[in-house]
Structure formats: C-alpha cells, structure tokens
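Comment thread on ticket #2218

A.B. wrote:
> Attaching the input chain for the structure job we discussed in standup.
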Amino acid sequence: MKKNVPPPLDDLQFVKEWVKPRVSTKRFGHIAGVAQTSKKLVEKFSNDPDMAYMAELAGWLHDACKETKDSLLVQQAKEYGLKLHPIEEANGHLLHGPVAAQLVKKEFGLEDPDILNAIAEHTLGALNMCLLSKIVFLADAIEPSRPADYANPIKQAIDQSLDQAMLVACNSNLQILLESHKAIHPRTVEVRNYYLQICQNKNK
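C.D. wrote:
> Ran it. Output below, let me know if you need it in another format.
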C-alpha cells in the first residue's frame, strides 16, 4: 500500500476506471491532464514519490462529481454534514470538490487530509493550503487543454513561486467571474487577498 492511500486507491488504473463513467469524454480528458500536470508539478518542487502519487491521485479524483446536477450536489453536501454558504446553495456546482472528497472518504476509506483537501479546495482555494492542495489547484488551471492566454501567465508565475502563481490564478478567476456576471463566493476574494499579502510581504 502506498503511503496514506488505502486500496484500491493505490491502483491508478482502478481509479481511472471508477472516474471514467461518471463524466463526459471531454471532462475525462481534462481530468487526465490535471492528474499528469499535478504529478509533474510535484516533481518540480519535491522529489517525494509518495507525494507525486498523491498528487496524481487527487488529480484523477478532483472532478469526479463535476457533472453531478447542482441540486444533487447541494443535497449530498447536506447529507455529508457540510456547512454551506448561501452562494453554494444557489450555485451547487461549487460543491463538486467538497462532495467528491467526502464521497471517496466514505466509499474507499481515504483519510489523508492533504489528499482530501486537494480534492475539496481545487475550485475556490482556501487559506493555509498545503503544498498538495496548491499543486492540484494550479494544475487544474494550467493543464494542456486550458486556453494559453489563461494558463501561460500562471505557468510563468509558477517559475517564481507557487504563492505568486496562486495570486495570478486567483486574479484571473476573479476577472472571469466579473466579466461573465457570475456570483463570486467570498472565499474567492479572501483567498486572493491572502496570497496578495503573502506576495507583498515577500517583496518588502
């Protein structure tokens, strides 16, 4: 058994076969891209093979509930005892990460908090994200199918630091939400301001 990963999640072929029928072909391609990009990012910042596996695993699982209906995501989140913000109740798709984390925890006995957080936090981010969570968040933004005008500034920022890349990604996500006139979760703003402060402090 790989560190902190219970069977059958220690077999990526099983994981792929579990995820595949839950999503469209296009979504599965995105998921595969996130899994591979997550693994590569770990290899860039760490030579821990266990972490590389955990990142790839989280990448495969992060969007397992992406195509679940909004109303069902809200229902499942409540059944799992998750505390919901009114914006999440009105925009159930925001819950696909937290619900996926709870699903794999319940179905497979996955308990590692870093992997679960990486799955749960990949959409809105969070304060004090662990390395694994940052990596999956950023891999989701820069995997090969993402438009270059969105992904390239984030890739360039990664060469400076993961925190700088988080700030660039958060800024881009906020801009997209504003331009598309979509609701903005308060955590999106909080996370952006959190990384802005970190980056400003580093530059003093």
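A.B. wrote:
> Thanks. Noting for the ticket: The longest helix spans residues 25-45.
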